[in-house]
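Appendix B, example 12.
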Amino acid sequence: MAITVGLSLYTTRLVLNALGVNDFGIFNLVGGAVMMLTFLNNSMAAATQRFMSYTEGSGDLEKLKTIFNVSIVSHLAVGGVVFMLMELIGYILFDGVLSIPAERIEAAKWVYQFTVVSTLVTIISVPYDAVINAHENMLFYGIIGILEAVLKLSIAIYIANSTHDQLITYGLLMAVSTVFTLYIRRIYCHRHYSECEIYLRKHFSKPLFKEMTSFAGWSLLGSSTSMITGYGQGILINTFFGTSVNAAQAIAGQVNGQLGAFGNTMLKALNPVIAKSEGAGNRELMLKASAVGNKVAFFLLMIFYIPMLVEAPFVLKIWLDNVPDYTITFCQLALIRSLLEQLTITFSSSISAVGNIRKFQIYSSILAASPLVITYIFFKYEYPVYALYIVLITYTIMSSVVLIYFTHKLCGLVIEEYLKDTFLRCIVSFIIVICCAGIITYSMNESSTRFFLVGLTTVLTYSIAVYKIGFTINERALIRKNLKYGPILTGKEPKTI
């Protein structure tokens, strides 16, 4: 992840310089469907992974093979539907909806078609991502992540020196790299995991197909609403403010995504544990893993986000030669929203593990549609563009309340314990650390020395605040035991247990 983050941030700098602000904005507006459907892909993979991890908890290999075959069929069907929808949507978008300079319309259409192809391949490959997640194979994810980062860097260097249309070339090569890495996942899974055996006549079950389709359908309702809302916000920004502000939004997304990579990797390892615990009938362990997961996800992001929050102007000037307007504000607000999300981020996995997701997805979908409507009203009445992120932060808070309620109702979460042991400890730790970092920022002029001192202060105060305030007495005892006996490094339990 460390290698991937460094390469990805440098790649963004090269791509922005090569394409220019407007073409970079066009790619992220039109190719935003890739990001949108990456989110859809993750949601669908989570639905398939839930059944695989749950079944692994019960140890039924034959059922795992059936689940894999059923998921292959269902995702082929979904891929076909999405392909037709994207072609229809593309026709509508380029018929007067998107605000793109006339001379770049043709290039934008090519980028969109490359997006359609890579999206189709991504959806079809979802079952393989689910298998890797279910087996908690973080080593393979690390290798694939580095490979993807190296490919993107190579593409960025190539287009910086290309004499062809750089936007079209970039779109084509990004699609090729997506297909290539997904094909590697497919080969790896068939060679290493026995459940990856495509034999529909032997391993297909209509009752299981109906059960998985019903579950995936409700999951798809929630993820599709969020997906449409997310992409719609990019279109609203484009309509009211133009492609240069789309570029600022894309850079904020890059910063947020790359700095949050460590937390996302931790969640990939934790989600199978949640589902397997429920599959094995251990509800107590499932809830404990979920509650601690929220806390650790928050703390993993906090150590990276706080220096960026207080030093965003300095970092962006160093990172990018040309910083688009609104980028700094977008980055700071996006980071705050992402931190708030971590406080309840694993609860959706707990609800999915239990399996009764219909009401939860209905409420979540209704709530997820609200930011798009409210943002449109704000922009219509000439509110500033950063009002979008204020709306998103408000939505995140409301969404967290819904998650806590349904985790309590469906899984038995004790809300008072969650607020005391997770929420308050995270918020207090955050306030202490950011205040200490902020004192350095406001007492010195902007410089590399100040940035270094902010980072050093953050690490020191973070270590004390998180250990003493963020973790409970039992959690601190577990940390000390791990440090003393080293079970995390050796994979062995200490002799005293």
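The chain has 19 helices and no strands. The longest helix spans residues 61-97.
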